Amino acid sequence: MTVRTRQILVKEAASLFDLKPGVVEDADDDDDDPNISSGYPKDELNSAIGYTSQMLDLIVRYLGIKLPFCLFRKDIYTYIRSIPHSRLYQNQSKMPLYLENDKNFRRFLIGVSMLNYNIVYLCYTQGVHIPLSQVANTLQNLLACCNAPGLGL
């Protein structure tokens, strides 16, 4: 009964965020400016990462799983850091999960990598194998986890 309840909660969380399989469209070859299609506004990127971290937080709470990296919020910003005394990543500084400007770009990339590691770890706990080449597919991996046959076991 507990497993079924967990599955329902995770499915409902996925539906709240309208998480569904999609297709990444290639940029038009006729485009005069190749930079238009390759860049995303910071606000859209930050919103997507923010929603992803919120969804991940909900799912792990529903499933009762402790992640390798800790997500937390301060004001409107989301951060991630290693759990104290972790052997996985010794640096205890918080990494931003928002892109502010070029000054925090490197730390933002480290934060997103940590977020992806958390998602792949969650997938592992639910019996979903994510190949190394697919680790950066954040939402695809999260969806795979939400659709895992053994979700909540």
Structure in words:
Keywords: Coiled coil. Pfam families: ATG14. GO terms for molecular function: SNARE binding. The chain is mainly alpha-helical and 153 residues long. It has one domain: Orthogonal Bundle (Actin-binding Protein, T-fimbrin, domain 1), CATH 1.10.418.40. Helices cover 47% and strands 9% of the residues. It contains five helices and three strands, in the order H-H-H-E-E-E-H-H. A three-stranded antiparallel sheet has the order 1-2-3, with helices on one face. Strand 1 (69-74) and strand 2 form a beta hairpin. Helix 1 (2-16) packs antiparallel against helix 3, helix 3 (42-63) runs parallel beside helix 4 (105-125) and helix 4 (105-125) packs parallel to helix 5. It starts with a helix and ends in a 7-residue tail after the last helix.
CATH architecture: Orthogonal Bundle
Instruction: Please bin the fraction of helical residues.
Output: 40-55%
Mean pLDDT across all amino acids: 81
Adjacency order of strands in the biggest sheet: 1-2-3
The ordered H/E elements are HHHEEEHH
Question: What characterizes the major β-sheet?
Answer: 3 strands, antiparallel
Approximate strand percentage = 5-15%
CATH topology: Actin-binding Protein, T-fimbrin, domain 1
Low-confidence stretches: 23-37
Q: Going by CATH, what is the homologous superfamily? A: Autophagy protein 6/Beclin 1
GO molecular function, one term: SNARE binding
Protein name: Autophagy-related protein 14
InterPro entries: UV_resistance/autophagy_Atg14 (IPR018791)
Keywords: Coiled coil
